[in-house]
Amino acid sequence: MRNGKIIIFSAPSGAGKTSIVHRLLQAMPDSLGFSISCTTRTPRQNEIDGKDYYFLSLELFQNKISQGDFAEWEEVYPGRFYGTLKSEIERLWLQDRHVVFDIDVQGGLNLKNLYPTQSLAIFVQPPSLKELARRLHIRSSEAYEDFQVRLQKAESEITYAKVFDKVLINDDLLEVLSRAKELVENFIT
Question: With 0-12 CB in 10 A as exposed, 13-18 as middle and 19+ as buried, what is 71?
Answer without folding.
Answer: buried
